[in-house]
Amino acid sequence: MLQSFSSPLNQVQSRIWLMHWSLFIFFNHDNGRTQIIDLFNQDKYLNAIQTSAPHLLRYLATAFIVNKRRRPQFKEFIKVIQQDQCSYKDPITEFLACVYVNYEFDGAQKKMMECEEVILNDPFLGKRIEESNFSTVPLKDEFLENARLFIFETYCRVHQRIQMGVLSEKLNLNYEEGERWIVNLIRNSKLDAKIDTEMGTVIMEPNQPNVYEQLIDHTKALQGRTYKLVNQLLEHAQAQPAR
Q1: Which residues form the PCI domain (predicted)?
Q2: How many C-beta neighbours within 10 Å does residue 215 have?
Q3: What's the pLDDT tens digit per position in 169-200?
Q4: pTM to 2 decimal places
Q5: In terms of DSSP bridges, do strands 193-196 and 161-163 run parallel, antiparallel, or are they unpaired?
Q6: Which of 121, 122, 212, 231 is 20 to 30 A away from residue 63, measured at CA?
């Protein structure tokens, strides 16, 4: 009986059960968004999600998006999204795939609108707070604000000169709202950018390599290390006495 309880299948089922119950706590606790990342992102739990409960990726993705500090596990999680984007569809995970995997910003804009509906109708994410006869969903506002930030950061790494009207549209804002949002963000962040109000453009300084340049540099470095390793193996083989 004990052996049956501790079988690999039962262990996976127990982890899935724990993760489902933990949702009641994580999205109702001040530090829950950090704790859900720490738990769900452990290899055993993440494997259980990918194999048996992919719908839980929605909650891990949401936690990454609304977390105030970008977690070091985020890049690894994007790889998980990339691996599973054909087998599991969810507006929130698809939003991350659009921004960080496919660089499809029009798609990200559409997914952001779908994400709003998902949050409002999700029993864990759509918690409402009643204030002065008004009902609000705080997580929805945080999600949309950070989702815009994700789009802005990635879009600015890919493009050097950006039309404010185009970027505002991709952020689901009108021109005035978008201009105000972009100006405030640049002022409060470390982005090396200039705003040309007459031309209505944002100009990124060229000393920031874009995504494609970073990919090329990474590929070159990988090729260099591979070439060096092959040479070392050849030298070692040549140094061996003939048998």
Answers
A1: 25-209
A2: 11
A3: 999 999 999 989 988 888 877 667 888 888 88
A4: 0.77
A5: unpaired
A6: 212
